[in-house]
Amino acid sequence: MIDAGQLHLIELLLSIAGFLILFLLGIIGFWIQKWIRSTDALTEALNNLKILFAGTKATVDEIQKHCDHRCKSIDDRLEDQTRAIHKNITEIAVISLKLKLNED
Questions:
Q1: What is the C-alpha to C-alpha distance for residues 25 and 61, in angstroms, rounded to an integer?
Q2: Within a 13 Å sphere around the CA of 51, how many CA atoms are in the beta-carbon half?
Q3: Which helix (H) or strand (E) holds 29?
Q4: 23-28-34 Cα angle (round to 5)
Q5: For the chain, what is the radius of gyration of the CA atoms?
Q6: How far apart are the C-alpha atoms of 1 and 22, rounded to whole Å?
Q7: Distance, CA of 70 to CA of 30 (rounded, Å)
Q8: Could you write out the DSSP letters of every residue in 51-79?
Q9: Taking residues 64-83, what's their average pLDDT?
Q10: How far apart are CA 43 and CA 57, in angstroms?
Q11: For residues 31 and 24, is the Cβ–Cβ distance under 8 A?
């Protein structure tokens, strides 16, 4: 059977073990709390990046739309200029031919 001295020793060991368990749980809780805070900060940073990316994408889409419109306008003007140049070349050739026939 267990006598009073051994009982006191068992109570002391259980108290020390309980203290160590509580201490270790406190340390684990502290690190879990730090991990949760860092995870929350990373989540917030990720959300901010998503918002920034969405805004940047909208800006890029708007710039692309503007460039497409501008390119179409420039292409149309170049086409008009090409037609005018072709017409002028044809007219110059006709005038040149007429001058050549008149000289003969």
A1: 53
A2: 6
A3: helix 4-103
A4: 130
A5: 44
A6: 30
A7: 59
A8: HHHHHHHHHHHHHHHHHHHHHHHHHHHHH
A9: 93
A10: 21
A11: no
Please enumerate in sequence order all residues whose Cβ is within 8 A of that of 2, keeping only pairs 6 or more positions apart, or say none.
Answer: 10
CA separation, residue 29 to residues 17, 39, 41 (Å)? 18, 15, 18
Q: Kindly report, residue by residue over 80-89, the tens digit of the pLDDT.
A: 999 999 999 9
* Residues near 10 by beta carbon (within 8 Å), at least 6 away in sequence: 2
pTM, whole model, 2 decimals? 0.52
Q: Which two tokens stand for residue 104?
A: 């003969």
Length of the chain: 104
DSSP 1: -
